[in-house]
Each structure stands twice: as structure tokens, then as C-alpha cells.
Amino acid sequence: MEHYDWNEGWLFTPRFDPALVRPECELELEPVRIPHTVRVLPYNYCSENEYQCLCGYRREFFAPREWKGRTVLLTFGAIAHDATVFCNGRRLFHHGCGYTAFTVDLTGALHFGQKNVVAVRCDSREDLNIPPFGGQIDYLTYGGIYRAVSLDIKEPAYLRDVFIEAKAEGDFRIYTSTVGETVGCTLQAEIRSPSGSLAAYSGELSLPITGVLNGVHPWSIEHPTLYTLTVQLIRPGSAGLPDRVLDEKTVRFGFRTVQFVAGGLYLNGQRVELRGLNRHQSFAYQGYAMPDSIQRLDAQILKKDLGCNAVRTSHYPQSPAFLDACDELGLLVFTEMPGWRYIGDESWKAQALQNCREMVCQCRNHPSIFLWGARVNGSGDDEAFYKRTNEAIHRLDPTRPTAGARNHRKSQLLEDVYAYNDYSCRGRGAACEARAAVTPDTRKGYLISEFGGQQMPTKPFDDETHRLVQALRTAAVLNDSIAQQGVAGSFGWCMADYNTHREFGSGDRICYHGMLDMFRNPKLAAAVYASQKTPRSPSDIVLEVSSGMALGDLPGGAPTACWVFTNAESVRLYRGNDYIAEFSPDRHGRFAAMPHPPIEINDFVGSLLEKYEGMDPPSAQAAAAILNDMRRCAMELSPLSKARMLSLRLSWNEVARMYCKYIGILGSPSPVYRFEAVWHGRVVGTVVREPVQSVRLECTVHNPILTDGPTWDCAAVSLRAIDQNGNLLPYCGEAVQLRVDGPLKIIGPSVVPLRGGMAGTYLATTGEAGRAVLHCRMEGALDTDAVLTIRSRENG
Ligand code: GAL
């Protein structure tokens, strides 16, 4: 058994020519590294025509004589979207799904002891008769060999697949499938626990290996314990010869049990409230073609920064690196078959079924996956077709339920779970629909597979009111889905902004539906998720204040609502050196069902009137109530405030003077506001809002240590303009000039504008190891540098 990474040495042409597949080829070709995109796109205003092409890849290699009599398997992690593979001019394989892996047996076409050539005809045009194509699609589909490629040299008999079903109680079943002549062969299986202890089992090829492992640590969201299974295919020795290991496969897995009871999800017998986001696997400039570390970062952001416990890989199976990270982090995954709203003809459906089978076989050992999407997202009913997808999925994986995300109520429920894209939130009344009004069978599972999205597209550079609406609506749906009995939870639409087709988005080919921008910088609404984390230490405390406290940003100069998104126990507000008030989450209010309800800051006066106006405490309190009430109502006097004025014998002039002094109008001197997060009696976080005095450019490299190999690697960089107190400056739109010294290449432009005070870039490794420095320069701010280390796989 030999394994080779095959991500180097490829040549590319954007226009396929039949000459490409021939052993000798004179075409002008471009050397490329995998993952590869057929076209690097601009950030926005890109065109979906740019990446649609019939293109080609070619790789020459030497097949040593020792390979003779063995099996040579070439595996592509993913090619978007339709791929035909040739070896030495012979057409060997065709694959029609851009989101699943496939393996080509090259053996019969090889010339041993000679040069060989593999070529790929790659079709990324959107008129293909395969999923997700056929209708309009709200995301770009890109093109190219965008996941890793590898070559395996095996014996003529080998293990094609290993699948382990493992329950929380420790009982397991191992299924294997083999290729080639295996008469008389046996299997050896070894399960290794995280502590290194081993348990060995043996079995026959025709039956699953079953057993019970005592004292297992189940895989859960809090403790995602992973075990490994190694299966060997063995040819018993004869005539004094020892046994021979023909093949060996190692997979990671977890012991866990998934059930839906009366709508809700139970993991290992415990109710889990799903709090998740939908994820597209696309990135600025590169589309799908990003290496593993960038895929893994997304899982970390979801779990660690946003506090999610689940993700939906809308609308297709995503990279194994992303799923591996979900396994390690304890992030539940709802993975679905490729597609978007459209169901095609019989040939399209046959491909869709094949996609379902590949999705399950390739992903089923991941303990994080708890649910399979057996329907094309948002499609109508099709009884015959969806009976088949459900059957195919259940046959290949009897352990997990199926669901299907629909946009309609009471659609036919052939799955175990009704997944509903609930876009009913209008900002008033209930923020999600009643489960009983949606699902035809309340005994089955129920979850909200999407909400938000097109209801409130929000750009990071939208005004404060708009950004706050996105955040509050997100909170409202989270709250109402938790409050409703029998709802397993929700997946917001969506994690990050994404490039889309002309029929969708804001006219610039971007759907601004994310909690994060395309570079994964957080918008205000991200704090709604982040603040739901259970804090274990002061560093887990989130404190995000919705308002910039700049009156001129708001219509009529009237202040708007001010909300704090926090998981602290309370928030204290100071004005200058004066303490105003302490605010705690309202456990009976609009967001009472959330673990950490957002807090409305509704008192900006406190006891200031007592201190500075010489009022007695009850009068000071009543007068403060008038001012706070006026602040909420754009300086209007409510009947209650009028009544209070009368009883306090305050004139309008007097009230207006105090309003100007303690709340402020356009032109009033700007006070300094300080918000403190209090946790376990201590101040663990502070936000200061005061006029901006200086602008700083902050540069964060999320993964400053890179490894070139087995593919190129990439660093994700965030840029933010902040003030002297570390506050984001949402209207800073300066250009940032980027320059790298050392072996890294900037992907996309080297001058990037800040959008909503934020930007990002990606830095790709070049094959060389060393140290690199990213220099960022912005007019009006000091230059910032970031240091990166690049290792190559050889030198560790
Ligand atoms: C949904 C769809 C998503 C996305 C979203 C936008 O209907 O399933 O893919 O387009 O709308 O809000």
C-alpha cells in the first residue's frame, strides 16, 4: 500500500482541446496547484459567465515497473462539476457531481516503466443536466479541481469502504466492502480509544463485525470524543507462509445515538436545542478552491466564536476537512444532497440518487453528522423520487434520520424530520410559525432549517438602525424557536455573505445575508449568536453594544434603541465618571427563552438629577423617567410623561434643558459612555463610546503558521479600522495597501477598501518554506505588520 498526494504537477487550460488527453501535447498550458479554481473572481460585481467553461487539466507521471500486478487508484476530492478522466488517451471514468469524491482505477491503462499522462475534461457550465442545475440558483457554483487529489497503489484485492455504526452504549457494527479476489480472506479490526487502549476483533468478509466496547466515552457536543478504527484485509498464509495484510483502512468515529422524539433532538438520550447557521463553502476570489485550514477555520468560527452547536452544509456535502473539524469540535452537522429548488428529468434524478449514495458513503463515519437531507432544498413534492432518495440513504445508513428542507407548509413528509425554511418573521408578533401549522405529522422531528436571509439583507456599512434590526430579528427567531415545544432548534440563514447569481443578492452579486461578511468578519447580528455561549472563564464573555452613540447618524438626530448583546450577568453603564445604572437580562421579556437575552439599555440618566439638579430622590427618579421616555420616542412626550411633568411642576423649557444636558441633542457636547460586563461579581469586559480621536488599523492573521503540503496552504487575514477604544469604525472605507515580504502570495487585489470598517485578504503559500511579513498601510493610520511562518511538509 502506497499513498501519494497528487496536488502538484498539474497543467491547466481554460479551453479544453482533445489534444490535451493525448500522450504528447503541444498545447500551451498553465502550471497550477490544487485546490484550483478555473477563474479567480472579483469581490463583487463578478459575472457567473466567467467561471463557466469547458476546461482541462493534465498531469504526467512515471509508473514504475513495481506497480505491475497492483491496482492504481486515482482519487479526486471534488471536481466542479462534470468530469471525464482519461489515462494515456483512454477515457476511463465520468463523474457528474461537483460535491462528492470519486476514484478512478487507472491500472488497465498504465504503461509501466514509462511516462504516463492523466487528463481531465472539466465542465463547469451551468446548463449541465445534473444537480444543482436546471433553474435559477442563489449561489455561484464555480469550477475546477477544488479539493485534494491522491494516488493509491494497492493489491489487486483491496478494501473499498469501511463503515462503523457505533451507539452511545458502546455497541458497534463494522461493515466493509472489498474489490477483487478475496476468497479465503479475513478481516482484522482494531478500535483505539483516545487514551490509546486497543480492542481487537476478527471477522469474515460476508458479515458485519459486531461487538460491544465497555466504558466508552460517547461523542457529544461538550465532549467530542473520537475513536479510531483500523480494518485490515488479510490473506491467511499457507504452507508455512505467514498471513499477508492486503489492505488497511483507518477511519475516525464516535460512539453516539441520535433520535428525534416528539419533534425534539436527543443526542445520547439528552435533549439538544440546535442553535446553528447555514454555511456555503465559498470564499471571496477563490470560490470553492480553498485548502483544508481555511475550511477548518469556518468550523472553529461557528463553534468557538459564534457559539453554535450545529451547522447545515447548505446545499451540498462539504469538504472532509470541514467535517473533520466539526467532529473534533463537537459541532453537529446537517448535510444534504446537492440541489436548489429544481427537480429535473429522469437522467437528472438518476444522478441525484447517485449523489445521495456518494454523500452517505463518503460522510457516514463522521460522528458530527446527525441528519441527512434527502430532498433538494426548497423543492416541491415528488413522491416517487423522494421515496427513492430516502430509501437509498436509509439503506446505506440505518443510524441517522433523514430530513428535507422545504419552503412550504404541509408538504408531503416522507422523511423522519420536517425541516422548514421559515421566513415568516416580519419584525412584529411571533417570529416563527407554529409547528402544528407547518408539519403534517407532529410526532416526527421538526426544525427550522433557515430563517433571516432575504428578510433582512444587511451590509456591514448599513446604518445603525438597519444593523440593529438584523440583530433583533435574529434574536426573536432564536427565542421563539426555543420557546416553542417540539422544535429541535434553528439554523439561521446564514453564516457568511456569499457571491450569488444576478437574480439574487443586492445587484452586486453578493447576498448580504450573513452574520459575517465574506471574509468572516462579524456584523452586529453575529453577537446575538456569540452571546449565547455559556461562559466558563472571563475570556468567554461577549459584550457588544448596538449603538455608536453618534446622534447625527440617526434620522432627525434622535437616538435609537440601545441594546447590549452579552452573556455576562449584568451590564453597568457610566456617563463620564458618573454611575448610571446596572442592567440585567429580562427573564420575562421578549427574549426570555434565550440562554442570554439581549439587554435593552433604557436608562441613561440614573440618579444624575439628584446629584446635579438637587432634586430629591423620588423627583429625580420621576424626572429621569421622563427624559428616558423622551429618548425612546424621538423627544415626544408620552401621556405618562406629561402627567409626570405636571405632578413634578416641571415646565417644558425645564424638561428640554435637562434633556439637552443629560440625553443630548444634535450639537450637544458628546459624553463618554462606559459599559461594563459583570460576571461573578467582577468587571470582565468594557466598551467605551466617545468621540473618535484616532484611527487604528488592526490586522489579525487567523492562522499565522502555515504548512505547504499536501496542498498549498492559506492564511486568512482580517482587517479592521478601530478607534482609540478598540471600537469598530463602521463607516471607514479607506483603502488598505497590502504587501508581502517572503514566500506568500496575496490572493485577489493588493489594495483593498474597508467595507463597513472591515476587510480581509488571503495569503497563499508558494511551495517555499520560511518567514513572511504582511505589511498593511492605510492613510491616516499607523502601518501594521503581521508575521507568518511557512513550513513545508518535508521540514515539518
Ligand atoms: C432560501 C434558500 C437559501 C437562500 C435563502 C435566502 O429559500 O433555501 O438557499 O437562498 O432563501 O434567504
TrEMBL record:
The keyword Hydrolase appears for this protein: yes
Any idea where the Glycoside hydrolase family 2 catalytic domain is? Answer: 263-530
Residue ranges annotated for the Glycosyl hydrolases family 2 sugar binding domain, each copy included? 51-151
Q: Which GO terms describe its molecular function?
A: hydrolase activity
Record's superkingdom? Bacteria
Q: Which residues form the Glycoside hydrolase family 2 immunoglobulin-like beta-sandwich domain?
A: 158-256
Annotated keywords: Glycosidase, Hydrolase
Q: InterPro entries annotated for this entry?
A: Beta-gal/glucu_dom_sf (IPR036156), Galactose-bd-like_sf (IPR008979), GH (IPR017853), GH2_Domain-Containing (IPR051913), Glyco_hydro_2 (IPR006101), Glyco_hydro_2_cat (IPR006103), Glyco_hydro_2_CS (IPR023230), Glyco_hydro_2_N (IPR006104)
The record's family statement is: Belongs to the glycosyl hydrolase 2 family.
Protein name stated in the entry: Glycoside hydrolase family 2 TIM barrel-domain containing protein
